[in-house]
């Protein structure tokens, strides 16, 4: 089990990081009372039910922070391995963020934010010393922060947790609403007008071979793959974690199904999770067409 404690200065991006970890498949618990941390980690280890857990702790857990140093030592002695991510930012940046969001610092109450930030920095100094990773978010955009989180917690340059859905559809049934990219393959030769192929679908070899025997189909699929291969890493840099590629023909039964299958086969060489769906493949058949 990978057990991560996310903490640091209020306003430095802890909530954003917890959401990013959740997208990576972590079971996330925010602002868990400190005395419950060892109980939770022990329970997770004994049940072996979760592989990745992240716990958020901030200055609101003030009384518990007094016990945290000893609790972390006890967890290590008990064989519980954990990692601490500490989020830092310049005081001037934190003050600006609080003014922009019009939120109160947990320690400010009716006092000044700058004094509260310095008090918080002093109280968290001990856990910063124990941190495995310290990220200064002063000049980071959300996408920059995500890149750093990916480097730490994915542990590699691959992105198996980026999900790509390749979806075939029929234009006469409407474009899928969740599409990120939409492509029209109605320019390709149509098996619908071949009597032996009309009742079949792009999942059948005869239809697949007929469509892909067209030079236009081969060129289109090749160039589409190259474009998608280029786009995905740039989408990841912008913080996307999934992509829906919709490919349509008239009825969503022959040409679009063929191209989706060809593209999916090609994309298996890439380090992403690929899912294929054929939304309208059976609709014409049900309507007797």
Name some characteristics of this structure.
289 residues; alpha/beta; Rossmann fold; 2 domains; 11 helices; 43% helix; elongated
Explain the layout of strands and helices.
Elements: E1 2-8, H1 14-23, E2 27-30, H2 37-47, E3 52-56, H3 62-77, E4 83-88, H4 91-101, H5 113-123, H6 125-130, E5 133-136, H7 142-153, E6 163-170, E7 181-184, H8 205-212, H9 215-237, E8 242-249, H10 255-267, E9 273-278, H11 283-286
Parallel strand pairs: 1-3, 1-4, 2-3, 4-5, 6-8, 6-9, 7-8
Helix pairs in contact: 1-7, 4-5, 8-10, 9-10
Can you offer a commentary on this structure?
This protein is an alpha/beta fold. The chain folds into two domains: about 1-155, P-loop containing nucleotide triphosphate hydrolases (Rossmann fold), CATH 3.40.50.300; about 165-285, no CATH class. Helix content is about 45%, strand content about 20%. Helix 4 (about 90-100) packs across helix 5 (about 115-125). The longest helix has 23 residues, at about 215-235. It is elongated and about 80 Å long. The model has no long low-confidence stretch (mean pLDDT about 85).
Arrangement of strands in the largest sheet = 2-3-1-4-5
Total separate domains: 2
Q: What is the CATH homology-level superfamily of the largest domain?
A: P-loop containing nucleotide triphosphate hydrolases
Average pLDDT works out at 87
* Assigned CATH class of the largest domain: Alpha Beta
Helix content, binned percent: 40-55%
How many beta-strand runs? 9
- Which overall shape is indicated by the principal axes computed on the Cα atoms? elongated
Assign the CATH architecture of the largest domain. Answer: 3-Layer(aba) Sandwich
CATH topology of the largest domain: Rossmann fold
Count the DSSP helices: 11
**Unreliable stretches:** none
Percent of sequence in beta strands: 15-25%
Encode the helix/strand succession as letters. EHEHEHEHHHEHEEHHEHEH
Binding site for GTP: 58-61
Pfam families: PapZ_C (PF22740), RapZ-like_N (PF03668)
Keywords: ATP-binding, GTP-binding, Nucleotide-binding
Binding site for ATP: 8-15
């Amino acid at each position: 089990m990978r057990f991560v404690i996310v903490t640091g200065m209020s306003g430095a991006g802890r909530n954003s990081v917890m959401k990013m970890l959740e997208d990576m498949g972590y079971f996330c618990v925010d602002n868990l009372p400190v005395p419950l941390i060892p109980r939770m980690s022990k329970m997770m280890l004994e049940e072996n039910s979760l592989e990745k857990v992240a716990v958020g702790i901030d200055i609101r857990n003030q009384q518990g922070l007094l016990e945290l140093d000893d609790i972390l030592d006890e967890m290590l002695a008990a064989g519980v391995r954990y990692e601490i991510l500490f989020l830092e930012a310049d005081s001037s940046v934190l003050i600006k963020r609080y003014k922009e969001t019009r939120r109160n610092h947990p320690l400010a109450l009716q006092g000044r934010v700058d004094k509260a930030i310095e008090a918080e920095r002093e109280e968290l100094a001990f856990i910063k010393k124990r941190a495995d990773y310290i990220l200064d978010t002063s000049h980071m955009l959300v996408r920059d922060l995500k890149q750093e989180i990916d480097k730490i917690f994915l542990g590699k340059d691959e992105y198996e947790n980026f999900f790509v859905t390749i979806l075939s559809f029929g234009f006469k049934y409407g474009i899928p609403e969740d599409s990120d990219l939409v492509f029209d393959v109605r320019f390709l030769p149509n098996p619908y007008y071949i009597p032996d192929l009309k009742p079949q679908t792009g999942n059948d070899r005869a239809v697949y071979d007929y469509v892909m025997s067209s030079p236009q189909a081969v060129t289109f699929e090749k160039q589409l793959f190259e474009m998608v291969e280029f786009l995905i890493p740039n989408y990841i840099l912008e913080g996307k974690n999934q992509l829906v590629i919709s490919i349509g023909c008239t009825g969503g039964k022959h040409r679009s199904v063929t191209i989706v299958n060809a593209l999916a086969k090609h994309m298996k060489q890439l380090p992403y999770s690929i899912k294929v769906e054929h939304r309208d493949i059976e609709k014409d058949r049900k309507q007797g067409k």
